[in-house]
Amino acid sequence: MAGTKFTKAEKSWIVYDVGNSALVLLATSVIPIYFNSLADGPALVAWSYAETVASLIIALLMPVLGSIADMQGMKKKFIRATVACGAVATVAMGFFTDPTAFLFVYVLSSIMLNTSIVFYDALLVDCTTDERMDDVSSQGYAWGYIGSCVPFIACLLIVLNAKSLGMDLQGAMKIAFIITAAWWVIFTVPMMKNVEQTHYKPREEHAVANAVRGIGATLKKIWADKTLRTYILAYFFYIDGVHTIIKLATSYGSDLGIEGTQLVLALLVTQFVAFPSAIIYGKLGGKVGTRKMIMVGIVGYTCITLYAAFLLRTAVDFWILAIAVGLFQGGIQALSRSEFGKLCPKEHANEYFGFFDIFGKYAAVMGTFIVGTMTAATGNGSLGVLSVVVLFIVGLILMSKVPERQ
């Protein structure tokens, strides 16, 4: 990013996405395939429920933690704690071969990762201005996609060449988990040094009790704001589909019999496609409107879901799906984050982003649960994937009705 117009604080905030995205990429590609080998059979249902549990716990924690994190100097303390715990849990995954124990540690790692990202999202309002928010948010996703490929490729080479390196699969995965955790920690450091929490509320006694009591009041404020209410409801539905596809694509492809190497390489291509796409999305958001570009992304994901349900059968089909996802994934997430950052009160950013995350995580609970339940009931994963289309349609309708602030 040398030579760009971004400030030191903005650059430092952006590179955290490079760090955490390494684990995100591993969790959406190699880890589900590795779990399939531990489970010794179709694992889509178990993986879906594990993702559901992780999302549910995060959704329950974030309103309280978010309210506390809005106090002076607390955002970065929460990030340090969640990154430290998450990195330890990530390394620990390499030491469990029992499927249930592995899923337990994975859920812990996922909770720490995604909780840290909520605090990170809330720091967006501290490192930049409303006018620059679309661009900075998009740059975060873009550099996260491309930067995470460095440790991922290293991990992939080790895993794919485990036998020639004198290791079994578990030994190779141990090294992969260590590399990923170290990468995450290293790229957390610039943000800890160079981004300050400029928007905050005063520290108070009995913070936890007050945070619990304040949840209802904050929710009432969000609900009373018609613009924010309609926007967050739209987000609830369409981000459900986005998260579900991200989390279950590899497991779904694996259950269809597509070779693991093909799945992983295709998702690596997604990262390279998503890098320029996310940046372009941010630029277009500033020119034609953030909400319009979000709606373009929803339509794109609707088409992707239909393709996955009806046409995805071979490795070539999965490669096409991966490229298509790359065109929209970073853009829709980045602009959703920046638009919410513009709408919420800055001194309560963490608290509001906690609720923003609740809607996203409960949506993820619903999506993964629907896919898992539909697949278990019918024995057909395609029917579960198809159900996601309804959520995109509802999200699109609601987004078109979000009123402008007066």
Topology, pairings included?
Elements: H1 8-28, H2 30-39, H3 44-69, H4 75-92, H5 99-122, H6 124-127, H7 133-147, H8 149-160, H9 169-186, H10 189-194, H11 207-224, H12 226-255, H13 260-288, H14 290-310, H15 315-343, H16 349-378, H17 381-386, H18 388-399
CATH structural architecture: Up-down Bundle
Q: Give the strand content.
A: under 5%
Helix and strand succession?
HHHHHHHHHHHHHHHHHH
Rg is 20 Å
Helical segment tally?
18
Structure description:
- This protein has 406 residues and is mostly helical.
- The protein has a single domain, classed as MFS general substrate transporter like domains (Growth Hormone, Chain: A, Up-down Bundle), CATH 1.20.1250.20.
- The chain has 18 helices and no strands.
- Helix 1 packs across helix 7, helix 3 packs across helix 11 and helix 3 packs antiparallel against helix 16.
- The longest helix is centred in the middle third of the chain and has 30 residues.
- The radius of gyration is 20 Å and the shape is globular.
Explain briefly what this protein structure is.
The protein has 406 residues and is an all-alpha fold. It is built from 18 helices and no strands. The longest helix is centred in the middle third of the chain and has 30 residues, at 226-255.
Main attributes?
406 residues; mainly alpha; Growth Hormone, Chain: A
